[in-house]
Specification:
Length: about 750
């Protein structure tokens, strides 16, 4: 890709035609003009930086080789096509070299099991984009389940709601699609159509949807998400839709949906007050346009799920209720109707230990599969409710008092990541089973649990990804570093055995090493195979390290909460401890150690750059938060105040400023070479964060490389070509800076 050649504006702080932006009362920000996302001055600056990348990193022969190698992985026809069962067909969204935007397609299970399935194209996004002159990016689809009567009559699954984003932004459109005729249903023909905004539609029945979107002034939250949800009837104007729920000016997101499980059809309204504070309401029709809302009486910090007769509650905090106290991180279950009637008795399905946390829970028709992380390694347990566990099933009080039966799944790997997904949770006890690690290509298996406990057979391998790089002689090790406060922090090291061993065990002691981390929002980093990483880094003698620092979810809510707000520094101390441990083990040196983080991990990278520059030979800061004084005023930033704090509160700003890289930058200090990457179309984390710190550092003569993709959204790329190019920029930067 050739960057557009432009005349570079002055690198001095003031733009000659600075765009006025809101004043938040903070000290004057000379780079505020770079927050004007698509302003002429800002984009001229961006194009000039991209041109510098084109003239430097992209001119090397190795750049083209790396880009081509990564593109081959992304476009490979041999990758596993992930499928979702809709009716009797299995649907997949696919992108390759011939279909950059992608195909939505379907096949039968019998055909899918073969090496060369016969796919029927349902929607061609490349053709659609060309016909409509729009750079559509697939955001998914939801399909209405026919009623039992319709299924019995042989009626097909027909009604779909397809979400498409222009250029990859979070804001998207929703358009009704007919799966039988394989065409969009035009609004003039009664089809549902939601204009571009952050929000969605959700099926109630074939002629009614829930709609939560931008309805005009005052209908969005401070984060830019929907504040109002309505019920919309086919063939009527959107402005006649009936309001179901309206949140407050301080809420984060309002939505609604219907559960279509036969015999257990229910409607719910979800109110997200803050990132870790939610309310769930049961919405019941009253015979009038209004719906009666009943709040599910659990702590706001808990996550609630209702499926058939059961209610699951996952706790983020301790909860004292019904004469018992349940620990944070536990998974509880109760009968939903009993709970609504006032019963507060729960069964504990999972309780965390010092090394374990809940990674997920997946329903099949008769079972609940609980996925547990034990020192960042997955373990699966099958739990069967009492009314399905015994011969004929327990009933009445016998069922209420009977325990859930636990059984195990045979044949699973001891190391690596194991994920599960129900094939059809309404009618089947079959599971998709995905296994992977850093050196083993992903395998997809099909597992039938059977109706009764212990009926599960061995997983049947359906498909495996090819090996995109030669892992012979490579190994994976898990180590633990000690953070400043004595906390034990796990991390994985991947690479050639002689490099991973460390100098004390015969290693070179100076391997070029890339250290990756995230540390936020209770998100766990688990082992996964990456053909691109393997080809561009591991196969060329690089070592890859993943740090499981606090702020993540590797050890449950407590691990996350240990790095919230005023304790944010704990995540950065953890990451620095891993960096030091790598050097102490003789795996690398600080000069040969690079690090990368994206989004919240970009904030991590910004703090490593500004607080621990001596630990790294290069830093990559991707789609980052950096200006923590203004982050709540930029795009979705207000939704993250529960994670970082409110900078408009003077007391909270005192601790927030200690991890705001834009303010921590010191012109007198030495910094390692840094690469900033972002996307103009990122409407979640504002590109102004990366632009402003890059400009500030460039103005002081620091070694800064900056690349901004003009489309791509928060993911950074809208198609495989852009993703390969962006990755090649990353790896070429590291190769040149780390050796």
């Amino acid at each position: 890709m050739t960057a557009e050649q432009t005349t570079s504006p002055s690198l001095s702080p003031e733009s000659p035609t600075e765009t006025p932006l809101p004043d938040d009362g903070a000290p004057h920000d000379p780079y505020l003009w770079l927050e004007d996302v698509e302003g002429d001055e800002a984009l001229t600056w961006v194009r000039a930086r991209n041109a510098e990348v084109a003239d430097t990193l992209e001119t090397a022969d190795e750049f083209a080789t790396t880009e081509r190698a990564i593109r081959e992985v992304l476009d490979s026809d041999a990758k596993i096509p992930e499928v979702s069962k809709i009716g009797d067909r299995y649907y997949n969204f696919w992108r390759d070299a011939q279909h950059e935007r992608g195909l939505w397609r379907r096949t039968t299970l019998e055909s899918y099991r073969t090496d060369d399935p016969e796919w029927e194209t349902v929607l061609d996004l490349d053709a659609l984009a060309a016909a409509e002159g729009e750079s559509w990016v697939w955001h998914g689809a939801s399909v209405l389940r026919p009623t039992p009567e319709q299924l019995a009559a042989g009626e097909p699954w027909r009604h779909a709601l397809v979400e498409l984003s222009p250029g990859g932004s979070d804001a998207d459109v929703t358009r009704e699609f007919d799966l039988v005729e394989k065409r969009f249903v035009a609004p003039e023909d009664g089809g549902f159509h939601r204009a571009e905004a952050k929000g969605s539609l959700g099926w109630i029945d074939a002629d009614t949807v829930y709609v939560f979107t931008d309805f005009g002034e005052g209908t969005l939250t401070p984060s830019g998400y929907p504040r109002v949800v309505k019920r919309w009837t086919r063939g009527t104007p959107l402005d006649e839709a009936v309001t179901v729920y309206e949140g407050t000016d301080e809420d984060m997101y309002i939505s609604a949906w219907r559960s279509h499980t036969p015999g257990f059809e229910r409607d719910f309204v979800h109110r997200s007050k803050a990132f870790y504070a939610d309310e769930l309401y049961l919405a019941e029709r009253t015979g009038t346009p209004e719906q009666r809302l009943t709040k599910i009486d659990v702590p706001d910090s808990a996550e609630v799920g209702v499926r058939r007769e059961w209610m699951l509650v996952e706790l983020r905090d301790d909860w004292a209720v019904g004469g018992a106290t349940y620990r944070a991180g536990s998974l509880l279950v109760a009968r939903f109707d009993d709970f609504l009637a006032g019963d507060r008795g729960f069964t504990v399905l999972f309780e965390p230990t010092a090394t374990t946390s809940l990674a997920g829970a997946t329903w099949t028709r008769h079972h609940l599969v609980v996925n547990v992380l034990d020192d960042v390694k997955n373990r699966l347990h099958v739990l069967t409710p009492p009314d399905a566990a015994g011969p004929g099933g327990a009933v009445g009080q016998e069922a209420a008092d009977a325990p859930w039966v636990r059984s195990e799944i045979p044949g699973l790997p001891e190391l690596g990541t194991v994920a599960v997904g129900a094939v059809d949770p309404v009618d089947s006890d079959d599971l998709w089973l995905v296994t992977t690690d850093y050196l083993t290509p992903t395998t997809l298996s099909l597992l039938s649990l059977g109706e009764r406990p212990g009926d599960a057979g061995a997983p049947e391998v359906v498909k495996s990804n090819p090996a995109f790089f030669d892992a012979d002689g490579m190994t994976v090790a898990q180590h633990f570093a000690t953070s400043d406060d004595g906390t034990r922090v796990p991390y994985f090291v991947v690479g050639r055995a002689d490099l991973v061993a460390g100098a004390g065990d015969g290693g070179t002691g100076a391997a070029p090493t890339l250290l990756y981390g995230y540390g936020g929002f209770e998100i766990s980093l688990t082992p996964a195979y990456s053909g691109a990483l393997g080809r561009a880094w591991l196969a060329r003698g690089g070592v890859y390290v993943v740090a499981n620092i606090r702020g993540g979810g590797e050890y449950g809510p407590a691990w996350h909460q240990a790095a919230l707000k005023a304790n944010r520094h704990r995540a950065y101390e953890d990451f620095a401890a891993v960096a030091r441990d790598l050097v102490a083990r003789g795996i690398t040196t600080h000069e040969h150690l690079g690090m990368e983080g994206r989004s919240n991990g970009g904030l991590l990278a910004g703090n490593m750059l500004t607080q621990y520059p001596e630990l790294f030979g290069a830093v990559i800061v991707g789609v980052p938060l950096l200006d923590m004084r203004r982050y709540t005023k930029l795009l979705a930033g207000a939704s993250w105040a529960a994670e970082y704090g409110d900078p408009d509160d003077p007391e909270q700003w005192e601790f927030i400023r200690t991890f705001s890289p834009y303010h921590l930058f010191d012109a007198e200090r030495e910094y390692p070479p840094v690469l900033f990457t972002t996307s103009t179309k990122d409407d979640r984390v504002h590109p102004g964060h990366a632009r402003k710190l890059a400009a500030k550092m460039l103005g002081e003569g620091k070694d800064v490389t900056y690349y901004e993709n003009i489309e791509g959204g928060h993911g950074g790329a809208a198609n495989n070509a852009q993703a390969a190019h962006m990755a090649a920029v990353h790896y070429r930067f590291l190769a040149e800076r780390l050796g």
